[in-house]
Design goal:
Layout (H helix, E strand, L loop, with lengths): L10 H12 L11 H14 L3 H12 L6 H9 L9 H9 L10 H13 L7 H6 L1 H5 L8 H11 L7 H13 L4 H13 L21 H21 L11 H5 L27 H6 L17 H9 L3 H20 L5 H17 L4 H13 L6 H8 L7 H15 L4 H24 L12 H19 L3 H18 L2 H4 L9 H8 L4 H22 L14 H23 L27 H12 L18 H18 L12 H9 L7 H12 L8 H9 L23
Helix pairs in contact: 1-2, 1-3, 2-4, 3-5, 4-6, 6-9, 9-11, 10-11, 16-18, 17-19, 19-21, 21-22, 21-23, 22-23, 22-25, 23-26, 25-27, 26-32, 29-31
Protein name: Centromere protein I
Subcellular location: Chromosome, Centromere; Nucleus
Main location: nucleus
Length: 729
């Protein structure tokens, strides 16, 4: 059950009370209005005012009523708008300025003008304020509001507003007031638009700097706006077509140096990004938008990102680069704390995630940043950002990879895993980018960088498999090669990207993993590789079929690939573990066997060790479906399932004790057990492995694509009695 706030804490109810009290003279009120005013100002300070509430508050402040000046001033000082300031609010405040019995007092008017200066960036339509320029200018003779009025006029003055009669008016007022600094400051703004005008020595006098009237008020406004933004972002109601004025809150330590989007010196014919709150207005005015003064705000402002994407500019890129390199220089010289750069990297990460690529400007930044980085602070953020490096020639990327590895690697498996994860992300991002491009553009892409990257990462994977032989490490290695399989499983990409295989020793290390998941995923990857090789080397069947010729380097890898593919099939399926290719018969199915590259003299030693343990154990079959440590449980589960079905029928006399062999199945059938041939058993285990209960289809997929007697069938009895191996020619 949710709790509703007490009546006195709702702003609309407080406004009802204030509006009622404003119509009654103070002496005739039965209760004091002061507690209501205090609650209202407190609520405004905490939450701000929604547009409808803001209109009611402005009406209360600008219309003649019986509220005291202290209450009206307190409300004005806490008038924090939650959204844009509407034209209605703006015109009502401008209409309340000036002389008159029904007008608010001058101290209150000065607060109104000060408020307009502080919310200028939130005006829904700043051109409305420009249209009231004549009304505001004619109020300069009111000394009580002149400082705030000059500040507002300085903000909204454009070239079209500078006229000779206005210059003469300011000169006359300046002489009457003895050189008012505020008038002098406004006159300097006029002179900036027309430097050739002659105004004498007045502009040389002391002038107002027109600084922000209340920095703490602005900070509090930013906090309230950010809270409101966060709520709308959670609700999914923000459309991304408005600049963010709470950038500083996100940057933490970098807050003081990274600016918000703000446009200075805009012309009367141009528009600024701060004016937009819809996609329609942004698109219609795209060519008229003035470049913001601080373009580095693109790192965190979605609207500025869209703008620079649609209107790219070399000058803009150079300005952003200069700003970033200046930050690196400040850290290097010791003028800025190093944590600032880490905060910057976090903001850059958010920016890169939105545009999905690391621009040349940011690559230059990271080249300098990595030289100061210790390899540990915010490592995940740094690597995630760098994973969006563009696909360039590998010689261009190699220096950055070398620098990154020198900073990241510290002789621990953790640092090696972090580096491998980075390369996996990078390869996935490159693949996504290539698949999203038109097919006709692929020949112009530096796609040879992909096999170069695989060759570069292979030693890292092999080192990890030996230094940290855990299941989690093996899965991380397989993640990388799954990413390569995604490339080679695409016929379009395969036409342009050469194939690079993993090191044989790495394949053997993974094949003997104590995890069924690792073995299954390895088999899935090898299946993808085999299909890719067959696609490349198979002759075209029609003139329309696209095909490329394998390179000499690819041909040299085929025998290596056939070797470890043959060894895995010998171990898991053919009952010939660690078999070597015969020296006399080059046409034998075992011609590619490499015996998992263990010394030939070690094979009889291992076989003797197994026979000492159990006379029934043989080295040739100990890694098959029935005895393999990661497959034996699933194999016997398949048999148990068949036995359960027979028991329900009442025709089962004895159960298999396991492990299953060709001879044990014959004996079992003769004693009243399940009648199952050796071929049916093996095919059934493959079906069980790829079924929903186990969900490990890697091994079955490899066997169906490699063993000739299984090709063309998914479940059922094997054809023939042999186990002929399909190698790559």
């Amino acid at each position: 059950m949710s709790l509703s706030p007490p009546p006195g804490d709702r702003l609309d109810q407080l406004l009802d009370d204030l509006e009622t009290a404003s119509k009654i003279p103070a002496k005739r009120r039965q209760t004091s209005i002061k507690p209501t005013v205090e609650k209202t100002t407190s609520l405004l300070y905490d939450r701000g005012a929604l547009p409808d509430d803001l209109i009611r508050l402005v009406d209360l402040l600008t219309q003649h009523n019986h509220l005291d000046q202290a209450s009206l001033s307190a409300i004005t000082r806490n008038l924090y708008p939650l959204g844009k300031v509407s034209d209605e609010v703006l015109l009502r405040i401008v209409g309340a300025l000036g002389h008159g019995h029904l007008k608010p007092s001058f101290p209150l008017q000065s607060l109104f003008l000060k408020w307009l200066v502080m919310v200028y960036h939130l005006l829904q339509n700043p051109t409305i304020l420009s249209q009231t320029y004549a009304v505001l200018f004619n109020l300069l003779d009111s000394a009580a509001i002149r400082p705030q009025l000059c500040h507002l006029l300085a903000l909204i003055t454009r070239r079209k507003h500078v006229r000779p009669f206005r210059i003469q008016t300011i000169l006359a007022l300046s002489r009457q007031t003895g050189g008012d600094p505020n008038l002098t400051g406004l006159l300097r703004v006029f002179k900036n638009y027309y430097p050739e005008i002659i105004v004498g020595d007045i502009t040389k006098g002391r002038a107002a700097a027109f600084k922000h009237p209340d920095v703490q008020w602005r900070e509090r406004l930013n906090e309230i706006q950010q809270q409101h933004f966060d709520r709308h972002e959670d609700d999914g109601t923000r459309n991304g077509f408005a600049v963010s004025h709470a950038l500083g809150r996100r940057l933490k330590g970098a807050r003081a140096l990274v600016p918000n989007v703000h446009t200075l010196h805009a012309h009367e014919t141009s528009v600024t990004l701060e004016e937009f709150d819809s996609a329609e207005g942004f698109v219609n005015s795209l060519e008229k938008i003035e470049m913001p003064s601080q373009l580095v705000a693109v790192l965190a402002d979605p609207l500025l990102q869209k703008f620079l994407l649609l209107r790219p500019s070399q000058e803009a890129s150079q300005r952003i680069s200069n700003w970033l390199m200046a930050c690196v220089g400040d850290v290097t010289s010791g003028d800025t704390d190093p944590s600032f750069l880490l905060d910057m990297v976090e903001v850059i990460r958010d920016y890169v995630l939105s545009i999905k690529e690391l621009s040349p400007v940011l690559m230059e930044f990271f080249q300098s940043f990595l030289q100061t980085w210790n390899g540990l602070d915010k490592r995940d953020i740094v690597l995630e950002t760098l994973s969006y490096l563009p696909l360039l020639d590998f010689t261009e990327l190699s220096p950055l990879f070398t620098l990154l590895q020198s900073k990241l690697l510290n002789n621990t498996p953790q640092s090696q895993l972090a580096l491998l994860t980075f390369y996996t992300l990078l390869l996935n991002n490159w693949t996504t980018r290539l698949l999203s491009r038109p097919t006709s553009s692929l020949p112009s892409q530096p796609v040879t960088s992909i096999p170069s990257l695989l060759t570069h990462v292979n030693p890292l994977c092999l080192t990890l498999s030996q230094s940290s032989p855990s299941i989690s490490t093996s899965l991380a290695i397989l993640d990388f090669y799954t990413a390569t399989g995604r490339i080679y499983s695409s016929p379009i990409l395969l036409l342009h990207i050469p194939i690079a295989i993993p090191p044989p020793l790495l394949v053997y290390n993974l094949a003997f993993s104590p995890s069924l998941t690792v073995l299954s995923r390895l088999c899935s990857i090898l299946t993808v590789y085999k299909i890719a090789w067959e696609t490349v080397i198979t002759k075209k069947t029609s003139p329309q079929q696209q095909q490329r010729k394998p390179s000499q380097e690819e041909w040299s890898q085929i025998n290596i690939f056939n070797g470890f593919l043959m060894d895995i099939c010998n171990n898991l399926w053919r009952g010939r573990a660690f078999a070597l290719a015969p020296t006399s018969d080059s046409g034998s199915p075992d011609a590619n066997a490499r015996g998992c590259r263990i010394p030939k003299s070690l094979v009889p030693v291992l076989d003797s060790y197994l026979r000492d343990l159990d006379d029934d154990l043989k080295l040739e079959t100990v890694f098959g479906l029935s005895y393999n440590p990661v497959l034996c449980l699933q194999s016997i589960k398949f048999v148990r399932g068949l036995e359960e079905k027979e028991m329900k029928k009442g025709g089962l006399l004895v159960r298999h004790a396991g492990p299953v062999t060709q001879q044990s199945l014959v004996r079992l059938a003769g004693r009243g057990g399940v009648r199952l041939s050796w071929q049916e058993y093996r095919a059934g285990v493959l079906g069980w492995l790829e079924g929903e209960e186990v969900g490990q289809g890697g091994l079955p997929g490899l066997m169906y694509n490699t063993m000739k007697n299984l090709m063309g069938t998914r479940r059922g009895t094997e054809g023939g009695g042999g186990s002929s191996f399909s190698s790559l020619a």
